[in-house]
């Protein structure tokens, strides 16, 4: 949570500090120049009041441009300062959380071993892993858990769980029907055909009980088969202390580097079992294939988005579909259409993508769910920045440009100069739409609330079902973060060109912060805690936005024929240096556990058995309540074998 | 040693296997084509028999070029196969050496800690380091040694050692003069002024004794001051086992990454004490500054080298200095000049560079001497490949090209096509000269032998002096390896264009292998053992040569208007993939110690005290024979403080 709140804090900080200086200084500077009348004759009519307040209104070569240049420096330095402070802060928070003396986190005691070589003759996989790690870590090795292929067993387990749920529900209905007037009650029934709509009618409680009795032994057999025969080339290894696990996770184990590769273990609920068996070079191959696929996706989506943005400006619509002219010229409709038409198409369009990116990221072979989300989020960020921000700016410009260029090819530069502020209007409304629609509907949880009450009234019968219905799910970092980052990019990039966008940004992030804070504390249940691992990701992307901003401004000052443009070069170099220094100083701690943090002793000696059990997937534990002889069954070796 | 021998083995293997196929196939294919008469009319006269055997003799678009294309594939696959085998072999050798159960290597028990934060109030540096590591590694921490600034103490120690040597020498002379005829002997004398040439004459034995008595207490005082007041922000930390040290060296210690940075400790005699205090970001800054300096050096040397190569072709000399014409036209002189004139300038020129590169590499802040040598060697490789190989090829061509281009600009392509084989002659003689001059003089150790005998007769008087005179020094990896790599590059790049170069390469590396084997076993004393750490370096450079070769050939086939050139693209991609896979599979083990290797127990428990003492520089040990209370004095804390 702290990362997300921290992001909102720092973005708010950047925007407020920038706005305090930029708004009172740049707006008068821009408004009192009279470029709008003399130079922008090619696009008169579309120039509204907003553009008078932007940098587009300032004459070329004007000394007033110095104010905008200095404003850029101010925004950059504010960003550096706040980013630095935030990185230090989050790094400290992460250290505090990880060195906590109260909370036992199973993942701090385990490492994940992949690419284990084939089992030697006459040994089991478990023997192999145990003897290997016992030799290397004789004093700190606790035991190991060989990863198995759980596909079959999960399927059967899910079936069983489904029947159990339905049984509970049927019993609840039956219990409710036993009113005082009718003490014997009405036994619920159901049809056994497709979706319970066709087929023979049976007594639900009896039917589900029979089904459970039928599936349970099947599950037990499959569990045994899984444990014994479906062992993979991967294992979890547990240590007796946090510092031993942290050191082991960072050390090279085998002298052939692609064997016995170790990493820190993810949280139990984050572990993606099906990805663990993928081999070293296959992982890398998959990664590159996914990167190429994503790059292709980004490039091919560019075309339709650019096209839509270009088509759906009102002027173009009128030209292309003349029969609309009469309708569109009504003032009210015109305003609405002008503001929301191009953006709506875009927003609907964007909703399709995140799921695909999640699947692609998972296919890379990443072992942890949160890492998959980070990877997908990164891809999504590049997608939306490239397509939405750059695509719209260039696409919207190109369409009207092509025709003009044919007539007088030397006018490209002046067209670009006037089109950048024009797109400011587009993005201003985009930001506004985002916080009205986005926050208004999604984050007020109106929709889930209605669904919850409907479910409660008509569907949910047991306590467990009620709980599940209310479970609000995760905060959806995967799409939320890149979405926010897009707003950051847009607001930053236009902060100097059209400073009026800053208050919109402040409102967006202010509201976001309030709602998020409220929800994070009261409603949302985080699916996992990654202790700020998201932060370096966000930091990099805010910095990338800043660099994009500086480069854009470099080009824009050039278009304005400002001779002192080279003064921006040191700023870009400074940004790159800042990013490098930050990643060198802080990043590795977000990847590896620092020993000085891991070495704090826990208040009580941790229950190693419990830590071990936390990693057993529910489908593999013999009963809901763990039975005592479980660990022997799982490992297929005597218990003494894995103890030191 | 094994790395160097291995390099020669594999290069020999590549050349022999390539030669066996290329020579019998390509030479007839090239010689029986008649391109030489029809197309190369612009440069007739300089075409000798050699060029008839090269690819330049094959007609453009000829289907015979298929043979050359397939030859390129053959050479590449031979190289992949041998490189892969060699990397595996060296990796195994390194593992064997590091897991040896007999030899105790101090560096396997120590780690180097840099960037220690300022000492907190009321603690000594030693306390700070000890308590930090004792908390993290309570069971395996042995003790620590704080790094000091030894500049002053080294100076005094060297002065003292000088006097001791001179005293020993004077005593030896005195003892020799006591012949049976003159039992009292003649006491040697010397002058105390500049270089012993002027000033008062004194009795040497008395004088040096007095000097030693004068300097010894000065040294003792300085030693105390150094230990107490000249402590730096760096330390060596010793562990009780190899596996503990290996794991600690690879683990992040502080959560602010640029504090308490750890690396594996270099061998004691390799440690560069003066570099240890340099801070994290300063090291990186220094590195980039050095890279820029080296890049500038490479680029600015390019101009004179290209100029010299262009000037010193015989034809150009005749044109520029017409008065030489009569002399030069004598057949014998012409042959000699033609062959050796341009190369001699180049070889002398190259002799200047290695020292500068060593200094620059040391200035990067690298803590280990062998690492400095590797770094310098890498820079030197890029220098000579860029300047000698590419510089000469392009430079030699450009000079004659400029004039022709002015007349008919479309002839550039045909000139390039004919000039590549022309340069083959240059490089053929370059390789020949290298092995005659290089091996003949340098490696036969004729010069050192003469110097040794002269010294023995006239200068050396004591045993120690004799030993020092014979001490042949290191093998000079820094310049030897890049020199060899240049030959590899040249021979590889011309192996298909002019296969006749292959036997020369075979002779060069065959002779080199014999001499090196002989010397390495009998004469040279390695200054340090890095257990194959040089290999990844050599591997990368052989592979870089191969890629340069493939790219060059890609261009050359294009010049020959061969339509199937794109068939070379998969080969280049394959080379890049091969390099990537090798570095992923093997490289990390050459940087970090694998725990499975470090965990082998030693035959006898190691003497930790002795390991610790191995790192005390001679200038800081109180006597030549270590005194017992030394460790307390060095650390300024009671001995019990550093034990666990």
UniProtKB/TrEMBL annotation, chains A, B:
Annotated membrane topology: Multi-pass membrane protein
Compartment(s): Membrane
Species of the source: Fagus sylvatica (Beechnut)
Molecular function terms from GO: calcium-activated cation channel activity
A UniProt-annotated Pfam family: PHM7_cyt
GO cellular component, one term: plasma membrane
Domain CSC1/OSCA1-like cytosolic: 108-275
UniProt-recorded name of the protein: CSC1/OSCA1-like 7TM region domain-containing protein
Keywords: Calcium, Ion channel, Ion transport, Membrane, Transmembrane, Transmembrane helix, Transport
Top-level taxon: Eukaryota
Spans through the membrane: 7-27, 65-84, 288-314, 380-400, 412-437, 485-516, 537-557, 563-582
UniProt xrefs under PANTHER family: CSC1-LIKE PROTEIN ERD4 (PTHR13018:SF100), PROBABLE MEMBRANE PROTEIN DUF221-RELATED (PTHR13018)
Domain CSC1/OSCA1-like N-terminal transmembrane intervals: 9-85
Domain CSC1/OSCA1-like 7TM region residue range list: 286-557
Family of the protein in this entry: Belongs to the CSC1 (TC 1.A.17) family.
Main localization of the protein described in the UniProt heading: membrane
């Amino acid at each position: 949570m702290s990362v997300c709140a921290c992001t909102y804090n720092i973005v708010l900080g950047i925007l407020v500090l920038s706005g305090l200086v930029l708004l009172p200084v740049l707006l008068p500077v821009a408004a009192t120049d009279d470029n709008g009348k003399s130079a922008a004759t090619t696009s008169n009519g579309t120039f509204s009041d907003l553009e008078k307040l932007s940098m587009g209104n300032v004459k070329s070569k004007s000394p007033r441009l110095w104010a905008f240049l200095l404003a850029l420096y101010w925004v950059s330095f504010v960003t550096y300062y706040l980013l630095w402070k935030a990185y230090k802060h989050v790094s400290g928070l992460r250290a505090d959380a990880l060195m906590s003396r109260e909370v036992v986190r199973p993942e701090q005691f385990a490492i994940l071993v992949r690419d284990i070589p084939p089992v030697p003759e006459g040994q089991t996989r478990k023997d192999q892993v145990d003897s290997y790690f016992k030799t290397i870590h004789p004093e700190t090795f606790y035991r190991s858990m060989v990863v198995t292929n759980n596909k079959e067993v999960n399927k059967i387990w899910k079936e069983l769980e489904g029947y159990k749920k339905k049984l509970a529900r049927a019993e609840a209905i039956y219990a409710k029907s036993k009113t005082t007037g009718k003490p014997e009650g009405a036994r619920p029934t159901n049809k056994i055909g497709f979706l319970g709509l066709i087929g023979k009618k049976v007594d639900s409680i009896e039917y589900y009980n029979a089904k459970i009795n039928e599936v349970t032994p099947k599950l037990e057999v499959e569990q045994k088969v899984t444990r014994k025969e479906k062992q993979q080339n991967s294992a979890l290894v547990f240590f007796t202390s946090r510092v031993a696990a942290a050191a082991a996770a960072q050390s090279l184990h085998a002298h052939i580097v692609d064997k016995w590769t170790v990493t820190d273990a993810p949280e139990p609920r984050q572990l993606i079992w099906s990805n663990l068996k993928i081999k070293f070079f296959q992982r890398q191959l998959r990664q590159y294939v996914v990167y190429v696929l994503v790059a292709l996706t980004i490039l091919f989506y560019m075309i339709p988005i650019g096209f839509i943005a270009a088509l759906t400006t009102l002027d173009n619509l009128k030209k292309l579909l003349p029969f609309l002219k009469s309708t569109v010229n009504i003032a009210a409709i015109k305003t609405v259409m002008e503001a929301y038409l191009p953006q709506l198409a875009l927003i609907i369009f964007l909703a399709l993508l995140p799921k695909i990116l999640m699947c692609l990221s998972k296919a890379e072979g990443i072992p942890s769910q949160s890492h998959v989300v980070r990877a997908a989020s990164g891809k999504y960020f590049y997608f939306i920045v490239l397509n939405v921000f750059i695509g719209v700016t260039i696409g919207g410009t190109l369409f009207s440009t092509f025709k003009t260029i044919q007539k007088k090819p030397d006018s490209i530069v002046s067209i670009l100069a006037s089109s950048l502020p024009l797109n400011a209007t587009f993005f201003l409304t985009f930001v506004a739409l985002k916080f009205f629609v986005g926050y208004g509907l999604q984050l007020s949880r109106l929709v889930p609330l209605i669904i919850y009450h409907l479910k409660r009234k008509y569907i949910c019968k047991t306590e467990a079902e009620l709980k599940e219905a209310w479970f609000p799910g995760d905060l959806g970092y995967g799409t939320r973060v890149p979405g926010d980052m897009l707003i950051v990019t847009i607001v930053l990039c236009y902060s100097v060109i059209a400073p009026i966008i800053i208050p919109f940004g402040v409102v967006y992030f202010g509201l976001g912060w309030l709602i998020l804070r409220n929800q994070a504390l009261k409603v949302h249940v985080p699916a996992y805690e990654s202790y700020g691992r998201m932060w370096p990701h966000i930091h990099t992307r805010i910095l990338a936005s800043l660099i994009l901003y500086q480069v854009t401004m470099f080009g824009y000052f050039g278009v304005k024929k400002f001779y002192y443009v080279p003064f921006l070069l040191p700023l870009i170099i400074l940004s790159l240096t800042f990013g490098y220094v930050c990643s060198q100083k802080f990043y590795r701690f977000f990847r590896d556990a620092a020993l000085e943090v891991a070495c704090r002793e826990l208040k009580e000696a941790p229950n190693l058995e419990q830590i071990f059990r936390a990693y057993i997937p529910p489908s593999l534990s013999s009963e809901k309540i763990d039975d005592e002889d479980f660990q022997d069954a799982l490992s297929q070796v005597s218990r003494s074998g894995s103890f030191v």
